[in-house]
């Protein structure tokens, strides 16, 4: 009996018991047979898994969660009035603060609080000799920290949003220091409203704050600030 006839005769049995042939083969052919069986099983594995996933997706119904609509925000009259007012001024400068002098004493005090005593901030003699600015400069974070006073956010007698009971600083989306503030410079900040969103018990405002340096074309700081007003 030749090999072809042998396989034909054993075809039905091998389809159910594929490893029966292994016992009939010589050791050398047995290794090839086992390798062939392994490759066949591996090639079928991906198809079987795919068919199983498709069947599972078709047979099992995925429950659809109902869409829960958020409760409508009920705004106080003063909040609604400010919302309408600010929406009419989006992208425009709505506030310009007073000039503030950033002197060496203020810079030194900030250095003591933050423990940042780099000579470019606190050593006027070395700065005059080695710094390209020929003087000491304020810490960038000092300029940033002055935004509250520069935007009239801390003076109870001169508030930017006087109808709000409380202003909460949520954070900053972006901050840049285009040009250093030199010791003795005067600075002030302007405010542009980018967006206003009603929230529970108040408003969330995204504003662009620009710190102007007197006599300098480039600003000392540009920050995108997020605050919440509670009424």
Describe this structure in words.
The chain has 231 residues and is α+β, with helices and mostly antiparallel strands. It folds into two domains: 3-59, no CATH class; 77-230, Hotdog Thioesterase (Thiol Ester Dehydrase, Chain A, Roll). It has eight helices and six strands. Strands 1, 2, 3, 4, 5 and 6 form a six-stranded antiparallel beta sheet that branches. Strand 5 (202-213) and strand 6 form a beta hairpin. The termini are far apart.
Question: Secondary-structure blueprint of this entry?
Answer:
Elements: H1 3-16, H2 27-59, H3 77-87, E1 93-96, E2 100-102, H4 104-114, H5 119-122, H6 124-130, H7 140-145, H8 147-150, E3 166-176, E4 185-199, E5 202-213, E6 221-230
Antiparallel strand pairs: 1-4, 2-4, 3-6, 4-5, 5-6
Describe the structure concisely.
This is MaoC family dehydratase. This protein is of the alpha+beta class. It has helices at 3-16, 27-59, 77-87, 104-114, 119-122, 124-130, 140-145, 147-150; strands spanning 93-96, 100-102, 166-176, 185-199, 202-213, 221-230.
């Amino acid at each position: 009996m030749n090999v072809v006839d042998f396989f034909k005769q054993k075809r039905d049995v091998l389809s159910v018991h594929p490893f029966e042939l292994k016992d009939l083969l010589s050791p050398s052919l047995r290794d090839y047979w086992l390798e062939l069986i392994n490759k066949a099983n591996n090639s079928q594995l991906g198809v079987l898994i795919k068919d199983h996933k498709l069947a599972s997706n078709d047979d099992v119904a995925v429950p659809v969660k109902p869409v829960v609509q958020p409760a409508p925000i009920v705004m106080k009259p003063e909040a609604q009035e400010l919302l309408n007012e600010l929406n009419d001024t989006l992208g425009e400068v709505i506030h310009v603060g007073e000039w503030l002098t950033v002197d060496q004493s203020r810079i030194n005090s900030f250095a003591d609080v933050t423990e940042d005593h780099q000579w470019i901030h606190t050593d006027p003699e070395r700065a005059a000799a080695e710094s390209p600015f020929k003087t000491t400069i304020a810490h960038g974070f000092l300029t940033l920290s002055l935004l509250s006073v520069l935007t009239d956010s801390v003076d109870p007698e001169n508030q930017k949003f006087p109808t709000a009971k409380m202003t909460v600083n949520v954070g900053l989306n972006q901050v840049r220091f285009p040009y250093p503030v030199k010791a003795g410079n005067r600075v002030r900040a302007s405010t542009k409203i980018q967006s206003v969103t009603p929230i529970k018990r108040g408003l969330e405002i995204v504003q662009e704050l620009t710190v102007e340096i007197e006599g300098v074309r480039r600003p000392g700081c540009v920050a995108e600030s997020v605050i919440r007003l509670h009424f």
